[in-house]
């Protein structure tokens, strides 16, 4: 049977429990062998992250250290250019060959922005998409995606055993939680103890990240 790899890109500033649980449940719901989490260096679509690439990677590595199904992949941090996902997916496809199944994982908020991604059509020629609802996503679905979903949606991602360009929706446990919320709480001196893995929180405190500068 072909190997099945999930790719999960994010700013991860910082990585939190909703990211990790979604990755794990995606791996269960789509029978993935592994999920590679890819922190981006220069997000093409938003303000630069607050924490450095080195800190975000270190936090991610701590977060996945005892979970063999989740792997930190630092490749985007070594590219100076904008972190276009297509560049990452092409590079990984070159490494793994044609037979391994690739799934790009993303929450609904990120999915709604997909039509504006760099070479978005090419992404669908290289991998399938696994999308999940994100609590409190206020945006409407773009028309272009409605059309795409009509042609490409499959209900059960485990039935995808070949090909590319299909889109499946999965239902990981919902957490109304964001990295923005965590950064804000930290700036305000409030607790985030149960929103992050403990080693990540210890790292944030040790390195005095996300503190208000006076
Ligand atoms: N609470 C959540 N539940 C489900 N998916 C999430 C959640 N938070 C983030 N994601 C997904 O994780 C991916 C990376 O998100 P990102 O690193 O921007 O996290 P974030 O918490 O949204 O951060 P920020 O608040 O800085 O925008 C996206 O696909 C996003 O949809
Ligand atoms: O390739 C693009 O044009 C592109 C545009 C927007 C977002 N992305 C990727 O989508 C992932 C989730 O982004 P974000 O903002 O939710 O952290 C992250 O890996 C980004 O690099 C990629």
From TrEMBL:
It catalyses: nicotinate beta-D-ribonucleotide + ATP + H(+) = deamido-NAD(+) + diphosphate. Residues 7-185 form the Cytidyltransferase-like domain. Pathway: Cofactor biosynthesis; NAD(+) biosynthesis; deamido-NAD(+) from nicotinate D-ribonucleotide: step 1/1. SUPFAM superfamilies: Nucleotidylyl transferase (SSF52374). Pfam families: CTP_transf_like. One of its GO terms (molecular function) is ATP binding. Keywords: ATP-binding, NAD, Nucleotide-binding, Nucleotidyltransferase, Pyridine nucleotide biosynthesis, Transferase. CDD domains: NMNAT (cd02165). GO terms for biological process: NAD+ biosynthetic process. It is an enzyme of class 2 (transferase). Its EC number is 2.7.7.18. Belongs to the NadD family. PANTHER family: NICOTINATE-NUCLEOTIDE ADENYLYLTRANSFERASE-RELATED (PTHR39321), PHOSPHOPANTETHEINE ADENYLYLTRANSFERASE (PTHR39321:SF3). Catalyzes the reversible adenylation of nicotinate mononucleotide (NaMN) to nicotinic acid adenine dinucleotide (NaAD). This is Probable nicotinate-nucleotide adenylyltransferase. It comes from Ventosimonas gracilis. The lineage of its organism: Bacteria, Pseudomonadati, Pseudomonadota, Gammaproteobacteria, Pseudomonadales.
